[in-house]
Specification:
By secondary structure, the chain is mainly beta. It has 2 domains: 74 residues, E set domains, domain 4 (Immunoglobulin-like, Sandwich), CATH 2.60.40; 35 residues, no CATH class. 15% of the residues lie in helices and 50% in strands. It is elongated. The termini are far apart.
């Protein structure tokens, strides 16, 4: 009985990372995923958040479309799931600065020099 429990635990630890990892993608950018075995079917949970481009049977691109979370699933020829990964589409905070001055907010992109990208006046209603 103890051997069975250890075998189940070991199998869970080996298979776990393939399914537990999440992938962060910026909007309008792509990330390549190399697959462990050839894919037959590829699906994305919410096509408004991300899209998938199949490069070949062992490589796919996940493209960020809109902010949110979804998943990508890849099935092999035998019908086995070879990838089930959470996809998070969010903006990169690296190199971004927000300056708050009363009700005004100015957004800056600092790569390599800081330049204003957006200015908002919280006192004015949005159109």
């Amino acid at each position: 009985m103890r051997r069975i429990a250890l075998a189940v635990l070991a199998a869970g630890l080996i298979a776990g990372p393939v399914f537990a990892q999440s992938l962060t993608v910026n909007p309008d950018q792509a990330v390549r995923i190399a697959l462990a075995s050839p894919a037959k079917d590829v699906a994305i949970g919410n096509p408004e958040v991300a899209d998938v481009v199949v490069l070949d049977s062992r490589n796919i691109l996940v493209v960020g479309k809109g902010y949110g979370t979804t998943n990508v699933v890849v099935i092999d020829q035998a019908g086995r799931m070879i990838l089930d990964r959470t996809v998070v589409v969010s903006s990169a905070d690296s190199g971004q600065v927000s300056l708050y001055k009363g009700p005004n907010v100015a957004q800056f992109s600092c790569t390599p020099r800081c330049e204003m990208t957006q200015e908002t006046d919280a006192a004015k209603p949005n159109p």
